[in-house]
Design a protein that fits this description.
Helix content of chain B: under 10%
Distance between the termini of chain B: 37 Å
Shape of chain A: globular
Number of helices of chain B: 0
Number of helices of chain A: 0
Largest sheet of chain B: 6 strands, mixed
Strand content of chain B: over 45%
Order of helices and strands of chain A: EEEEEEEEEEE
Largest sheet of chain A: 7 strands, mixed
Number of strands of chain A: 11
Oligomer: heterodimer
Structural class of chain A: mainly beta
Number of strands of chain B: 11
Order of helices and strands of chain B: EEEEEEEEEEE
Strand content of chain A: over 45%
């Protein structure tokens, strides 16, 4: 299947700092990528849909000024958590949409664990 | 009511057992259905899509009942390596390519 990478795999930062997470589709182009967040023992929650060359679409309750998304190329989307707080500590997972003969499939990156102290 | 509901488990079963997971969804305008597998501290990986007629992939069988808004996953001859959390995932009509995830059912296969 298609490969999606994320960097960094884990990050620890101080409260108030900003953290950038990269999501790359390695062997296909993705005009659409998704950003999810998963808290312990909870389901993945979609935060936003990242569209190449246009503004991201945020889900209800997700602050667009806090979670900045940039999808500058067909293989890269970035999520920046600005002014991070301990409650932002979570598992952030991206996915990239790949078209195929049987329709479009989301391929997930390995995730980024964020711990805000 | 959650859009996608699953029994969180855990289901503790001996190796070789048959185990079934159920999932219900609330939106009748649901388009596509999937089972994903998520290992501890890893990303979810697609296990199988679920088709209206039911489908099988080796030891795994998925069923869909649109009238009852119910999806199931049957695992036969459980292996230790099947231990994971199984996520029921639904794509709703009109939701674009957004996926809605259940909280998952944890399976532990024991010797």
């Amino acid at each position: 299947g298609a490969v999606v990478s994320q960097h960094p795999s884990r990050v620890i930062c101080k409260s108030g700092t900003s953290v950038k997470i990269e999501c790359r589709s390695l062997d296909f182009q993705a005009t659409t990528m998704f950003w999810y967040r998963q808290f312990p023992k909870q389901s993945l929650m979609l935060m936003a849909t990242s569209n190449e060359g246009s503004k991201a679409t945020y889900e209800q309750g997700v602050e667009k000024d806090k979670f900045l998304i940039n999808h500058a190329s067909l293989t890269l989307s970035t999520l920046t958590v600005t002014s991070a707080h301990p409650e932002d500590s979570s598992f952030y997972i991206c996915s990239a949409l790949s078209g195929g003969a049987w329709g479009e499939t989301q391929y997930f990156g390995p995730g980024t664990r964020l711990l805000v102290l | 009511r959650k859009e996608v509901e699953q029994d969180p488990g855990p289901f503790n079963v001996p190796e070789g057992a048959t185990v079934a997971f159920n999932c219900t969804y609330s939106n009748s305008a649901s388009q596509s259905f999937f089972w994903y597998r998520q290992d501890c501290r890893k990303e979810p990986k697609l296990l199988m899509s679920v088709y209206s007629s039911g489908n099988e992939d080796g030891r795994f069988t998925a069923q869909l009942n649109r009238a009852s808004q119910y999806i199931s996953l049957l695992i036969r001859d459980s292996k230790l390596s099947d231990s994971a959390t199984y996520l029921c995932v639904v794509k709703f009509t009109g939701g674009g390519n957004k996926l809605t995830f259940g909280t998952g059912t944890q399976l532990k296969v024991e010797l």
